[in-house]
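Input structure tokens:
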């Protein structure tokens, strides 16, 4: 389901190719910030519904007021969150880190737009009634608790910060200590085996989450331990010395506990998002319409467009009067 409602009473008897409508719609869509806005504008069709037409012109007029005042609403994180939100409301579901990051970015931009509309400043307070009405369904909600709770635990790429929970912080500190102990043990082994020319190079590497050292294939029996594969040439094998096996086992255990804790934290975030699903979706719909309106406002400013005066069908002399009009693509 689209975030934006369909255009009411679309005009079907229209020579779109002769008017260049499709080219105009595609050109207009380039002014949108989001994929949602671009898709709606490129597929837009003329309407014969006078109430809808007047509302759209009023929204664009107010958006031009914002544009003139230097107000640029942030809409770059807009996407259709319906699927992710439906998933978040399922019992036991866990959103992927990127899904969580996208939803939180969207909630943050929704919150910023709602905050602006609540207090746009004295100069704009009485000049945005249509935009305020369009956002009425989201202005009453406060997504700050969700944004702050989740944002504090996330790194920019969606992964978890060390202090996302006390347990995660403890595990990662223990893992760092364990890795240092393994590295010290392997460096000692490298020094011993290097004296006889057994090791291929002074290097510690990882194979299958196990820290290993490279050993010349013909000398692998001289290094007591477990072989974890060989190089593509076959000249080197990667050996986990016996003395580090228990250290590596402990590190693997810590890694498993870390993954379990990460899963628990993401599951808790998913439940939080699920609780805020209705206002997040409402906010996405508001931002989607705002994106198309601001796109049309920027287009109108760039081409010095003016709002048409529409007569009612029952007017005494209905007709069409175009004064100094020009096609924007010609």
């Amino acid at each position: 389901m689209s975030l934006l409602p369909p255009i009411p009473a679309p005009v079907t008897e229209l020579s779109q190719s002769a008017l260049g409508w499709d080219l105009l719609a595609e050109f207009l869509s380039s002014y949108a910030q989001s994929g949602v806005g671009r898709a709606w504008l490129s597929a837009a069709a003329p309407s014969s519904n006078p109430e809808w037409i007047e509302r759209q012109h009023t929204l664009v007029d107010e958006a031009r007021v914002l544009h003139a005042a230097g107000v640029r609403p942030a809409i770059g994180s807009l996407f259709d969150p319906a699927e992710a939100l439906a998933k978040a409301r399922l019992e036991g579901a866990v959103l992927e880190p990127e899904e969580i990051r996208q939803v939180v970015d969207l909630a943050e931009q929704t919150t910023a737009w709602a905050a602006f509309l609540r207090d746009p400043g004295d100069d704009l307070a009485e000049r945005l009634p249509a935009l305020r009405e369009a956002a009425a369904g989201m202005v009453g909600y406060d997504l700050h608790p969700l944004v702050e709770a989740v944002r504090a635990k996330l790194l920019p790429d969606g992964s978890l910060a060390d202090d996302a929970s006390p347990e995660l912080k403890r595990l990662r500190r223990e893992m760092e200590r364990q890795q240092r102990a393994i590295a010290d043990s392997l460096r000692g082994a490298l020094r011993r085996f290097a004296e006889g020319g057994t090791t291929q190079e002074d290097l510690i590497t990882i194979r299958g989450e196990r820290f290993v050292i490279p050993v010349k294939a013909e000398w692998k029996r001289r290094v007591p331990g477990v072989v974890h594969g060989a190089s593509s040439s076959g000249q080197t094998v990667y050996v986990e010395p016996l003395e580090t096996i228990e250290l590596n086992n402990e590190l693997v255990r810590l890694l498993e506990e870390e993954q379990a804790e990460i899963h628990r934290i993401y599951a808790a975030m998913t439940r939080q998002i699920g609780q805020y699903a209705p206002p997040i979706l409402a906010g996405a719909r508001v931002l989607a319409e705002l994106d198309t309106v601001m796109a049309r406002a920027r287009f109108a400013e760039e081409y010095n467009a003016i709002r048409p005066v529409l007569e009612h069908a029952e007017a005494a002399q209905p007709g069409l009067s175009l004064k100094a009009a020009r096609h924007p693509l010609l």
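The chain is about 55% helix and 5% strand. The beta strands are 205-207, 210-216, 225-230, 236-241.
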